[in-house]
Amino acid sequence: MYPLRYLPKVAIDRKRVPAHVACVMDGNGRWAARRGLPRTDGHAAGEEALVDTIDGALEIGVRYLTVYAFSTENWKRPRDEVRYLMNFNESLIVRRRDELHEKGVRIRFSGRRDWRVPRRLSRRMDETLELTAGNTTMDFVIAFNYGGRAEIVDAVRELVAKGTDTGKVDERAIRSHMYLPDVPDPDLVIRTSGEFRVSNFLLWQIAYSEMVFTDVLWPDFRREHLFEAVSEYQRRSRRFGKLS
Ligand code: IPE
Ligand code: IPE
Ligand code: MG
Q1: Of 26, 76, 152, 197, whose CB neighbour count within 10 A is largest?
Q2: Of the bound ligands, which one is closest to the alpha carbon of residue 71?
Q3: Mode of pairing for the β-strands spanning 20-24 and 210-213
Q4: Number of domains forming the structure of the chain
C-alpha cells in the first residue's frame, strides 16, 4: 500500500476501502464542447484523469480498478471518432504500461476481441497482459469493446457449447464463464458527467454495487473525486437483502 501523498480532505477509513472500484468515464465530448474543441480533444484530456485516478486508487489500496473505455455501442459513433479512439487507446497503453508495470499494476482487458478491434491494438493488449501478468499490487481492468449483455451472451454460449446440463446452469456456472471470473464484483461504481444510467456496463456484476454519480466531467476527474466517492461509499449501509 502506498503512503498517502496528501491526506484527502474527506475521511477515508483505510480498513474499509472498496476492493473493486469501477468507473464509467463519461463526459469527454461535453468537456471539449465547452471549450470549443473537437470531441477527440476531450478523450485526450481524459488521460490525465485516468492516470491520477489510478494513482489515487493505488494510494488508498484499491485492489481492482475497472474503467469503461469503449462500449459495444460506441461503434455507432462517427467513423472518425471510432478510429481516433482505437488509435488513442493503443497509444495510451503503449505510453503508460511501463510506469504502471513499475508500480506493480497488472493490466487486463475485458470485452469482445472481435474482428472490429484493430489487429495492432489487439497485439498491444496481448503484450501488455504478458508484461504485467505477474503483478499483484492492483489489477487495472480496461473494459474495451465491452457490453454487459454481450458478456452474458458469451457466457451462455460457452455453457451451451460445452453441453452443460440444465440443472448445472446456476449463478455460479454463469459467473465462472464471465470474461474475468476471478475478479470480484465491484463494490463501488462511479459515473461521471451527471448521467444516471448504467449504459450496459458490468450488468451481471453490479447486482449489489453501490453507485455514486458525480457531475464532474471525466477529464476534470482527479483522485480527490475518487476519495470523495469512496467516502460516500463508506457512509452507505450495504445489506445484500438482509437486515443490518
Ligand atoms: C466518454 O465520453 C468516453 C467514451 C464513451 C469513449 P463521451 O465521448 O461519451 O462524452 P460525452 O458523453 O459525449 O460528453
Ligand atoms: C458509456 O458512455 C461508455 C463509456 C464510458 C465507454 P456513453 O457516453 O457511451 O453512454 P451513453 O450513450 O450516454 O449511455
Ligand atoms: Mg457519453
Answers
A1: 26
A2: 2
A3: unpaired
A4: 1
Calculate the CA dihedral of residues 52, 54, 57, 59 and round it to 10 degrees: -70
pLDDT, tens digit, 9 for 90 and up, residues 114-168: 999 999 999 999 999 999 999 999 999 999 999 999 999 999 999 999 999 999 9
Gap from CA of 165 to ligand 3 centroid (Å): 41
CA angle 68–69–71, rounded 5-degree value: 80
Q: How far apart are the first and last CA of the chain?
A: 30
The sign of the torsion formed by the CA atoms of 66, 67, 70, 73 equals positive
Tell me how far apart the alpha carbons of residues 235 and 244 are, in angstroms, rounded to a whole number.
14
Determine the pLDDT at residue 2.
53
Instruction: Give a yes or no: residue 15 inside a domain.
Output: no
- Owner of C-alpha cell 459515473: 191
- What is the domain range of residue 128? 20-147+186-234
Q: What is the pTM of this model?
A: 0.96
Judge whether 10 and 231 are in contact, CB under 8 Å. Answer: yes
| Ligand showing the shortest atom-to-Cα distance for residue 70 | 2
- Per the CB < 8 A criterion, the answer to whether 182 and 13 are in contact is no
Residues framing ligand 1 (Cβ under 6 A):
25-30, 70, 74, 85, 193
Give residue 103's pLDDT: 98
CB–CB of 147/75 below 8 Å? no
The CATH number that applies at residue 46 is: 3.40.1180.10
Give the residue whose CA is nearest to atom 13 of ligand 1.
Answer: 29
Ligand 2 atom with the smallest distance to the CA of 199 is 14
Q: Which residues of the chain have pLDDT under 50?
A: 1
> Counting atoms of ligand 2 from 1, which one is nearest the CA of 68?
6
